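Summary for the funding panel

The consortium committed to producing paired sequence-structure records for every protein in the target list. Below we show the first two records in order, beginning with the earlier of the two.
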Amino acid sequence: MKRDKLFDLWEGRDPEFEVQYEEPIIKSLCDYGKGTSQYQESRAKVLGAGYEAYIMAFFIGLYFDKSMPLEGETKKFGWAIRNWGNVDARKGRRNYHEITKFMFVALVARADIDFIALDKGEITVRKAVDILIQKMEEYANYGFYYMLKEKLEINPNYFYRNSAFLDVFTSLIKEEPNSPVDYDDDDEPESLD
């Protein structure tokens, strides 16, 4: 079935990212290139593997519904999407298969693919996967841009707070995506007693 083949081919790809985000985001927040490690340098990281930053950047772009084409020098992680979090490859990691399925569904909903034409064979499955990967890379590219320009350049320690990513995503689901998170005690539900 083309739907299964579409997912399998997409999941077998290794998305690209702009090299300009490698040092300030991926290497500073992740154990990029190290795997799970007991070394002191690795324990100080906020995220595990580099693709964890990519996942965060993707969802930031998705929820803002903003994408940016990759224009600078690019690089691949060297790890196919299906292997993200693969417990067999890196001891101590959980498989990210559920997260990648959510990403795939979001991309199918947002990418400009004519699925009738795909079903009729007027466009190839490979072409459809190329469109999905491009959209994914563009969402992540905006997310990396946002993380760097809107957060890290203002406060280099922003993502070292326990609630940093929660605050970003909470602000994204409010009416004003850039407004600070406001936890109002008056919003507590009434007691049922």
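The next record, for a separate protein in the list, is shown here:
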Amino acid sequence: MSDRPNRMDGLDKAAVDRAEAKDFSLGGKPMRPRDAATLILLDRSGDQVRVLMGRRHHKHAFMPGRFVFPGGRTDPADSRIPVASGLHPDEERRLIGTGSRATAARARAVAMSAIRETYEEAGLLIGEKGAFSTAAKDWQGFVEHGVCPSLSGLRYIARAVTPPRRVRRFDTRFLAAWRDDVAVELPDGGPTHELEELVWLPIPEAKETEVPLITCTILDDLEARLKVDPDLAPGAPVPFYAMRRNRFERTLI
């Protein structure tokens, strides 16, 4: 994978600035990226793998009208929510990463926030049917529908950090799960209504929609991985996109 041509190869800082100017306005002071998580939900029931995309509401200040995966900021409290099963050990190790902030609790919070956001934005509850109880306000949908969250089916796909000097900066982990991992699908979508249009698209078609540049790049990565690893085996190397020496670079972690 590391030798494969990629949409981000050769892009300098000016190119990234132009491509994302409408979504990440430039700011003055340095900002630390906030942890965030995104879930790429995959459906292999037909002759092509399809991916779930949602169009952000046109009234949103951030990426209005763009097609995105469900996702958002990580809440550290999500690490304390009970689960039916935890992350696969190989996935957990990669998601923990390295450095002073690399902990199992942080990795679990990131993974859980991807599941929570997928419920809130798309009305899809990932886990196992059965008794579930928590006092956490953001997880009452799982309590109401009798779904205990499960992390065992999640696969780490990519990581991307918003370049410096942006008003909004995120350290985003892109995770994937299969539609088979969804215990309940709510017909009217999620309670936040942040995504006003939900569609299942073959990956080549998804790349042709109005998606952010980094989303298109990660769809390229996912498409290439599925060709050699159609079941998304745990523990695979993960592409990491970040600005280094004034260039947006891709490395494997």
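Regarding this second record: The first strand starts at residue 34 and ends at 43. Residues 60 and 194 are 8 Å apart (CA to CA).
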